[in-house]
Amino acid sequence: MILFHIRFAFDVVYNSFTVITVLYMGYFSILFPQFFTTNKFLWFSATWPNYNFGAVRDMLVFIISVDRAISSYFPIAHRVHRDSFSNTWIALFLIICSLFDILILIGICRFNFEFPDKCNDMQCPVGMCYAKYWLKYEEMICLLIAITSGLLAARLFIWNHFYRKGTKITKVHI
Description:
The protein has helices at residues 2-31, 35-38, 40-73, 75-81, 87-108, 127-162. By secondary structure, the chain is mostly helical. Helix 3 runs parallel beside helix 6 (127-162).
């Protein structure tokens, strides 16, 4: 259950940061059109955490959906072995995912602070290479979340329509 609370906190931080970033960039782009071309580091600093938080949040959602699917298909094994995958290990994995994003940005996409002059969207500070990677990552992680959610929905459908023997749900079924 703690993973749901962590996800909620991530959602609050991520969405708040997105709103602040959009307002900040919009305000300065309208009032001071040359602001981001002269202060490119601020442009990057405003957009990069948004990409990074989004990637970590999506991975957390995927982990939660896999956890729920495994707990529905293998309830006893999940209950016995879930403690071996503590939330600390999951948090460490999410930090490694965040560091992997930095590796992609700097190592593979060869990030530098040379942005196009006429570019006004959030893809410019990170470059097209990383923006394409991030979009592909989003597509893949959302597909995996949909698959695991579909597996969970199928399992719950089978439970509700074929194995309904009593009205009480026991711990073994959960």
